[in-house]
Structures are given as C-alpha cells and as structure tokens.
Amino acid sequence: MRVLIIGLDAFDPTTFERLNNAGRLPHLSKYVAKNGYRRFTVANPPQSEVSWTSIATGLNPGGHGMFDFVHRNPANYALNVSLLPTKDGLTGTQFAEPYNAKTIFEQTIDMGQPATVLWWPAMFPARLKSPVRSLPGLGTPDLLGRLGVGVYFTTKSGYADGRRKTPMSPLQKNGKAYCGQLTGPMRKGKDGLEPSALDVRIEPTSAKAARVTVGKQSFDLTVGQWSPLFEVSFKVNMLLSIKAVTQVILVENGADVSLYAFPLQIHPLASPWPYGTPRDFVGQVWKDCGPFPTIGWPQDTTALEDGCINDEQFLALCKNVDRLRENVLMHQIDRFNQGVLACVFDTLDRIQHMFFRDRMDIIEQWYEDLDKLIGRIEDRLRQRDLLNKTKIIILSDHGFSQFDTKVHLNRWLVDNGYMNAPSGGEGKGSMMMANWSRTQAYAIGLNSIYLNLAGREGQGSVSPDDKEAVANRLRDQLLQWRDERGRQVVGHVWHQHEAFDGPLVSYGPDLVVGFAPGFRASAQTGLGEWERVALEPNRDHWGADHCIDPTAVPGVLFTNAAALADFPNPSYRDIPALSIGTQPDASNSTPPPTSSGTEDEAAVEERLRSLGYL
Asked: Would you say 525 and 446 are in contact if contact means Cβ atoms under 8 Å apart?
C-alpha cells in the first residue's frame, strides 16, 4: 500500500472550477478529465480543526469530540481552547491531547505499514506512544503557550492604544543605534517571577538598511526584508537555558525605526512539551532540511491585521512558509516506499481570509501556485517511478465565502430575552456577568449555542422537560432573523442530535448555527461577549471566512483512485475507506477536555485571544 494525501486547506470548489474552466490549472485539470474530481462534503461546523479531525478519523464531531474552536466547562462556564486544552500534571500545567479517536494514520500502523503526517491540525501535543511519524500543525503553540503573537519594536508613540493584539516594545536611541528587549519565558528574579530577555539592537547602515542584532544573532536587513529563521536562547536560571526559533523584519528605518519580531516558536529539538514523534524523526528532518516554522499558524495574520507588516511583507512570509514545508515534503517523498504519507498546506486559508474580499488577483495566483505544487509533487514521484504506483488523494477541509457582517450572537440573545446580563460602557457585555437564574442560552465559539440546562450547567435554569421547546423556539427565531437590507442572517440551525452522531454527542453544543454567506460570528461571540448592536459591518483586513453553513462552503476532492466511482458524493466519512480501505474507529474516543485544571483564567483567555479567528 502506498497512499499520498495532500491537504490544501480552504481550496474552494467554486474558485477552482472557474479557474479550471479558464485553463489556468493544468495539473489538477488532469484529475477532472479522468473523472477524479468531486465536491467534498465537510464537517459541521466547517472549522479547520473540526474538519481536518473528521477527515483524519472519518468521524463526525460526535465521534471525536472536537466541536468548535472554543469549549466550555459546564460546571463554571469557563472557556478553553479546544485545539490546545490544558490539564494538571506532576510538573504543573500541561497541554492535553485535544482528542483521542483513532486516525487513519494509526490504523495504517495497525495494518503493519508506516505512516508519516506533516502539519495536520490538532495533533499537538505529540502522542508519545504513537509510532506515527509526525510534525504537528494548527494548534501548536508558541514558546509562551499562546497560539502566536509577536512583538512590535518601534520609536513611534501612540501605537499601544489597546486595540491591537500585538504588544509594543519601545526602542530607545543609544548613540546611533536603537535598543530594546525581547522578552521570553519567566524566571525567578530578586523580587519574584520576571521575564527572561534578550537585547535587541538596530544600527542603521543606510537610509534603507540596518544591522539587526537579537541576542547573539546579527543580520544585515533592508527595509521590508525578513531575516531567515534563527535560534535564540533565554537563560532562566544558572543551569537552564530555553531555546526558541524566530525571525524578524525591518519595517521602518527613517524618521521612525520599527522592527517586528515573529512569535517565539518552540525549538523542536529542545521543546518544553512533546512536539513531534518520534524524536529521532523530528531531529533528522531538522538536520536534513534545516529550520522550519513550528508554530501552528506561521502565516502571521495578526501582524498584518495590526499594521505591524504590510501586504507584501505578509505575502513574502507566506511564500517562505510554503517553500519550507514543500522542502520537507519532498524530503519525505524521496524516502516514501510504502504506507501513508500526508501533508497539509494551509497558507491558502490565511491568504483568503485577508485578501478574498479585495484582491482576487492574489487569490487566483495562489491557486495557480498550488496547482504547480501538485505538478512538482507528481514529478518527484515520477522520478522514482512511483507516480502510477501511488494512490493520490488531494482534498480540502472547506471552501470560502465573504464575511461582510459580524454577528454578535450574545447581543441577539440578550435582546430577545434568552440571556439576562448587564451591559457596560458602550453597550458591551460578557456572559461572565450573566444572571444565570434568568438566562436560558449563551453562545461561545463561532457556531455554538448552549442551553443553560439545569443539572448540567453549574447554574442551570432550563429544566430538561423544557429543553426541546426552548431549543425549537430559539432555532425558529434565528431562522427568521433578517438584517436591515432584508438578508437572512442564519441559513440553518441544527439541534445537537441532528448535527452529531457518535459516543460523544452529549458534549457538543445544543444548537449549531450555520450562518448565511456574508455573516459570521464575531470574535466577541467566540469569547461569550457582545457589543452594542447585534450586527456590525466587518471593516477588518480579515474579510472572508468559512465558519458558516457548511453547505455553503464545501471542499474539494481529487484522486487517481478508481474507487472514487463508488463515492458519487464523498464526505469526510468516506476517507478511511477511500484511502486505506478501512472503516472509522471510535473505540478510543474520550470526552473532550472541558477543564483547564488550575491554570489561571487570564492565561486561558490570552491563549483564546491569540487565535486568529478571535
């Protein structure tokens, strides 16, 4: 058995079909010509971590337990990141596996075949007992345990206005140089815990160039140029230093001087948490291929949204991410003889989030680039005389749609009497201030509504006998919701038993909200918060999304497998059979982590807010 799976996150069928009909995607068009292309039914909700986990397992979210970006602890309504849950361990707070259902990669091992998986979402922390060779994708944190926030060094005043996620660190002039400090992990100081730090020094060498030094590493950079990935080391005590990987870009070098430092990433050979498996595989890839980004979201959309970098600098970063990942994939193809090799390329998702609304030229170029990538992959297999001896599956986890209007779903719940909570200044509020005895429902994540059910929620007010009636009334009102232009806000609403099946159904939300194209839950909704009005125009750079009605954002499936003829309408449920000839296996499924242990709530909230969607 030899199966190659290439994941193209967010590869949209409508865009593909339009470009393919124009003759612009010659490599993927070959699959169409041989009846090897289908639109692909994705998981509900169509969020990346949910959908890729359903593809990896063949299971509905009720089978694997990943229901939304945000889960909650029903006992106290506390939120946590489903991609990066935590638990108490012998050495303090530890990251927990987001799910335990058996994947097609583990099934491959059970069949006596090897499996390698590169940058698949929700595979951090590494399953140390697993013989699957892995490098984790979306959900892998930075060195500080967040999902990725860099630092903006600048001489400007007024940057730190409280509206941006990215922290500002002031640069002080020292002779002809500008100096600052890059903070790292906490250490014990004379007065208690304090952050470790490295000196940052910028020495202009011309109007458009400077020598940049971070710790012991120095680079000569021009304005707009990214440094290569490089290693840094933070000394946390007399005996211990913690390594990290980062890169920097010189943003300005004139009247004001600005430098952006990418999030501090886990060093895969010196990670404080289990990074990939096995360790010798991770080490060999690092040695043979050189440094690669380890953070799960290396395309820094937050830096672009906050104005730390511009469009061209962001695109240069994205191209380098794909270049480095392709290098590792080709390294593995050269050693691929049997079993399963899978790799996810997720940069298109980030590109579409940021440019789908205004720069379709950039989007179309990326589709053409991914088509060329498929051509290079096929060429590499052909060089080894494996192209016609390898089952190839190319697929996406969802498509894409406009995001014109932010939906403050909790504001709507307040306005319609389902939640009772005070609103503070400017009409803002949080469910953490709710009068739970008079609250029937609350929204968290991007597609989830939970009823405040007595006997389940810590302060439940809806009796089990009234659950169905309240849910039906709520569903009906949501489906009747129209904006000021008469557009339907919500396309579909599913009850828990309609959306999910499997052993973990009861852990999912009571209602799954499928927003109509053009609408998406606001970041505030994700955190159980709201603004003054229920609908707000989206003026962010992040102008498109997919966390809506899944029927509006199907994925794609290309394959050279003759078995596709048996799947006229393929979905994630069919991937185990189509890829390795097995059925989904939910025997290892365990309830999703809903508690963050004793971890400080502020740390959990910071991790949630560092997620690009929130």
From this structure: yes
Whether residue 104 is predicted with pLDDT greater than 90 in this model: the reply is: yes
Residues 84/235, Cβ–Cβ less than 8 Å = no
Residue 111 C-beta-side C-alpha neighbours within 13 Å: 19
Give percent of the chain above pLDDT 70: 98
In this structure, are residues 363 and 315 in contact, taking their beta carbons and an 8 Å threshold? Answer: no
Preceding omega of 114 cis (within 30 degrees of 0): no
- Cβ distance 85 to 95 under 8 Å? yes
Cα separations in angstroms, 22 against 66, 363, 364: 38, 15, 12
How many CA atoms lie less than 13 Å away from 74 in the CB half-sphere? 18
Which residues sit opposite 186 in a β-bridge?
195
Neighbours of 156 (CB within 10 A): 15
Give 178's strand partners: 173, 202
Sole residue written with tokens 């491959």: 108
pLDDT digits (tens, 9 = 90+) for 359-415: 999 999 999 999 999 999 999 999 999 999 999 999 999 999 999 999 999 999 999
For residue 226, which of 288, 317, 136 has the smallest C-alpha distance?
317
Measured CA to CA, the distance from residue 368 to residue 137 in angstroms comes to 23
**pLDDT for the residue 91:** 64
User: Which pLDDT band, with edges at 50, 70 and 90, does 129 fall under?
Assistant: confident
Q: Is 90 exposed, middle or buried (0-12, 13-18, 19+ CB in 10 A)?
A: exposed
What does the pLDDT look like over 285-329, one tens digit per residue?
999 999 999 999 999 999 999 999 999 999 999 999 999 999 999
Q: How far apart are CA 408 and CA 214, in angstroms?
A: 42
- The CB density around residue 476, as the number of other CB atoms within 10 Å, is 10
| CA–CA gap between residue 320 and residue 346 (Å, rounded) | 13
Q: Which helix H or strand E contains 363, and what residues bound it?
A: helix 360-383
Q: How far apart are CA 413 and CA 12, in angstroms?
A: 32
Looking only at the bridges linking them, the beta strands covering 518-521 and 168-170 are unpaired
Q: How confident is the model at residue 159 (pLDDT cuts 50, 70, 90)?
A: confident
Which residue matches tokens 């070959």?
A: 30
Give the mean pLDDT of 36-46: 98
Tokens of 145: 């345990």
Judge contact between 340 and 355, C-beta under 8 A: no
Q: Check pLDDT > 70 for residue 92.
A: no
Residue 109's closest CA among 379, 339, 395?
339
pLDDT score at 596? 67
- Nearest in space to 46 (alpha carbons), one of 572, 482, 564: 572
> Per residue, what are the HEC states of 407-434?
ECHHHHHHHCCCCCCCCCHHHCEEHHHC
